[in-house]
Amino acid sequence: MPFTAFGEPEDPLSYYSSTSNITDDQSLTIIKEKTTSPTATTPSVELSAQPVDNGDQPEVGGKSTADTSAPQISSPSTDNTTQPQADLEQPIVKEVEAEAEIEVETQEEDTPHPEIVTICDEIGNKLGSVSSSDCLDAAFDKPRFYSNKHRPLLEKHFYASPELVNAPRILFLGGIHGDEYSSVSLSFKWLKILEQSHNGVYDWHFMPLTNPDGLLQKKSTRVNANNVDLNRNFIPSETSINPIKHWQTYAKKRARYYPGTKPLSEPETQAIHKLIHEFKPDIIVSVHAPHGILDYDGGITPPQKLGPLRLRQLGTYPGSLGNYGWFVKQTPVMTIELKHAGIMPSKSDINLMWTDLIHWIKLRTEGDGTLIARKTSDQ
């Protein structure tokens, strides 16, 4: 069975509001005390791309008083050969499926969309390691999806070379939880690395901030503006227990884990669902914090490490992206859990994680350019 009953983790941020927990190459940046550093060039290949110099700046830290004890997790089965249950989504999909194919529209050069300018200013005012200009320089595609408060969900597509018809497709998601600052900032850093090094070998789609309302509140929250935990709002694969029952029983009705009234009730999760349906990624990469591990749900051999993060497969929660991606959509999901929610990884760790990720994708790619995951899911 894909589901293992877990106790839910507590608020991740309170531990990181103390400077006693900061390592030598890190420091805590208060929201109004933002710093910048010069930008370095990067090589022109994805595998060896180096991070820009401003990637090692400390992240903005919000204060929280919640307990940060580690989640009580039972040992799940690590048998990733369990067959996904793709038919479970059909009744819900009909309510949210788009009629037309998704078409990514890029901005005209030097003319960013006004909504992108606005949200980039908000992000720059919130985070100490992503400036408004950093955000605008990404040249995001024309907005198509919006949050509860009608903020655009930023997207950037990096197309594979036209002759590579089987190029691996990677969907990258950051900031599903608004109080995990480092996940948002790391997504922007890697997006910039890819911008400078993309060589057309892989087909990437980035959504670096999937919960803008949660991040951009005065006090950032895990949940979205509708008080829903987006990482419990996807279609569950389980029939024996649904997200609401899990929330009532195992999460003890804690508000930060509320899964919503029904799966895909939120515009943010509907957007991700549509992206998966149309883009058909071979792998989904999602960045979180602060457990300091690498989690994985899927049928192909996962990497044993990404930089300092070591593989520790936790199983899945009903309605989580990992549960939905693999057991419903038959798409492997790699969950990167950074060590700190309020502190950025060091520049060297940012580089190592990126390099290890690209190396794993390369190893999992067959001679014809098709990611092994694609053929595994088609069997």
TrEMBL record:
<comment type="similarity">
    <text>Belongs to the peptidase M14 family.</text>
</comment>
<dbReference type="GO" id="GO:0005615">
    <property type="term" value="C:extracellular space"/>
</dbReference>
<dbReference type="GO" id="GO:0004181">
    <property type="term" value="F:metallocarboxypeptidase activity"/>
</dbReference>
<feature type="compositionally biased region" description="Polar residues">
    <location>
        <begin position="65"/>
        <end position="85"/>
    </location>
</feature>
<keyword id="KW-0482">Metalloprotease</keyword>
<protein>
    <submittedName>
        <fullName>Murein peptide amidase A</fullName>
    </submittedName>
</protein>
<keyword id="KW-0645">Protease</keyword>
<dbReference type="GO" id="GO:0006508">
    <property type="term" value="P:proteolysis"/>
</dbReference>
<keyword id="KW-0862">Zinc</keyword>
<feature type="compositionally biased region" description="Polar residues">
    <location>
        <begin position="15"/>
        <end position="29"/>
    </location>
</feature>
<dbReference type="Pfam" id="PF00246">
    <property type="entry name" value="Peptidase_M14"/>
</dbReference>
<dbReference type="GO" id="GO:0008270">
    <property type="term" value="F:zinc ion binding"/>
</dbReference>
<keyword id="KW-0378">Hydrolase</keyword>
<feature type="domain" description="Peptidase M14">
    <location>
        <begin position="111"/>
        <end position="379"/>
    </location>
</feature>
<dbReference type="InterPro" id="IPR000834">
    <property type="entry name" value="Peptidase_M14"/>
</dbReference>
<feature type="region of interest" description="Disordered">
    <location>
        <begin position="1"/>
        <end position="87"/>
    </location>
</feature>
<feature type="compositionally biased region" description="Polar residues">
    <location>
        <begin position="36"/>
        <end position="47"/>
    </location>
</feature>
